[in-house]
Specification:
Blueprint: H1 8-16, H2 24-34, E1 39-42, H3 49-60, E2 72-75, H4 79-92, E3 100-103, H5 109-118, E4 122-125, H6 127-135, E5 146-149, H7 158-166, E6 175-180, H8 185-193, E7 199-202
Parallel strand pairs: 1-6, 1-7, 2-4, 2-5, 3-4, 5-6
Keywords: ATP-binding, Helicase, Hydrolase, Nucleotide-binding
Domain Helicase ATP-binding: 30-201
Protein name: RAD3-like DEAD/DEAH box helicase
Length: 205
């Protein structure tokens, strides 16, 4: 089944990338995210989680830049993961004016604050650095529409988990999407704290 009910520009980009129809996991989760549901997306490597994140984000942001404050925040494990995901996004956004920015420890924090202040649409961040910037009032999350964690296995460590779960305390209305290969105790805790109505979308091997 081909992609349905997605933004025409995004559909065109998918075709250019040779992506003609969704994988089973993508088919199961994309419509739920598009409909506004918060989700836990559980699937093995190779199921298309990263592409699902990109499609969902671009669809939610209507493929266009808007104002200065970010509208999507994506947490990743480390610098390498941030830059890899940014590179994947850029494959899809070459003809769009969306502004994507990666935040990680191995860079000057003042420079990062200044770049964010100038205006970004999508922030890809490590929990530790994003938390520090947030508490220095270096990022405005008042316009945030999507809060995503990619490959959430790294949240098994207490420090990044604590940094991630603090952010929703300051958000009014936001849609959450947590992607992982398994649903574990950390996700149960997130479900208790800020994802009580989230749906679990799981596709096995």
């Amino acid at each position: 089944m081909a992609f349905k009910k997605i933004q025409e520009q995004l559909k065109e980009v998918l075709g250019q990338q040779g992506i003609k129809e969704p994988l089973p996991f993508q088919k199961a989760i994309l419509s739920k995210i598009k409909g506004g549901a918060s989700v836990f997306g559980i699937a093995p490597a190779g199921a298309g989680k990263t592409t699902a994140i990109i499609i969902s984000t671009l669809q939610k942001l209507d493929c266009t830049a808007f104002e200065e404050a970010p509208r999507a925040l994506i947490f990743v494990k480390d610098k390498e993961s941030a830059l890899a995901l940014q590179s994947e996004f850029e494959r899809f956004t070459r003809r769009m004016d969306l502004r994507i920015y990666s935040v990680y420890e191995e860079h000057n924090i003042e420079a990062q604050r200044n770049e964010i202040f100038e205006g970004v649409d999508i922030v890809i961040a490590t929990p530790k650095r994003l938390s520090k910037i947030f508490y220095l009032n270096g990022i405005n999350l008042g316009k945030l529409k999507l809060f995503i964690v990619d490959d959430a296995e790294f949240l098994s460590k207490p420090s990044p988990f604590s940094d991630v779960i603090r952010i929703p305390e300051s958000l009014d209305r936001c849609q959450y999407a947590i992607f992982s290969t398994k649903f574990d105790s950390r996700m149960e805790r997130m479900q208790e704290l800020f994802m009580a109505n989230a749906q679990i979308v799981e596709v096995g091997e």
